[in-house]
Amino acid sequence: MNSCVWIKSLQDTRAALQAEGKGGVGASESGAALSGGGAAVGGMYRTPSGFEIPSVNIQKALKKAGYYNGALDGKVGPGTRDAIAAFQKDNGLKADGVCGRGTWAKLKSYLEAIK
After folding, report:
1. pLDDT in tens, 64-86
2. What is the dihedral of CA 64, 68, 70, 76, to 10 degrees?
3. How would residue 22 be classed by pLDDT, with cut points 50, 70 and 90?
């Protein structure tokens, strides 16, 4: 995804959150991270590179792997990001708290174990 498309996507996300009364930079009440990292909007988690996955699937996999104890609500807030970073650290990945392709490649096996 080129930077113009990403910026437009970010602006659309911010506008939608502000319309719901949840706008602002940083983590909103809806769990959307608006400055860097991934954003969770409408139940989908999206990284700056355009990788998308249902937010609740990330939480389910993290819970199964023993890294997340919060609600399975699809809101990617500080607890989910901290769990992602801990998983990344323990699995030899860059511990940035963003569930990108590399992180999901290792994490998804825990979700598949649930099915």
Report:
1. 999 999 999 999 999 999 999 99
2. -110
3. very low
C-alpha distances in Å from residue 99, one per residue of 16, 21, 42, 67, 70? 22, 26, 17, 13, 17
Tell me the three state secondary structure of residue 31: coil
End-to-end CA distance of the chain: 32
Please indicate, yes or no, whether the overall pTM of this predicted structure exceeds 0.85.
no
Q: What is the C-alpha separation between 93 and 105, in angstroms, rounded?
A: 11
The strand pairing partners of 39, in sequence order, are: 46
Its sign, for the CA torsion 103, 101, 24, 69, is negative
74: phi then psi, degrees, rounded to nearest 5: 75, 10
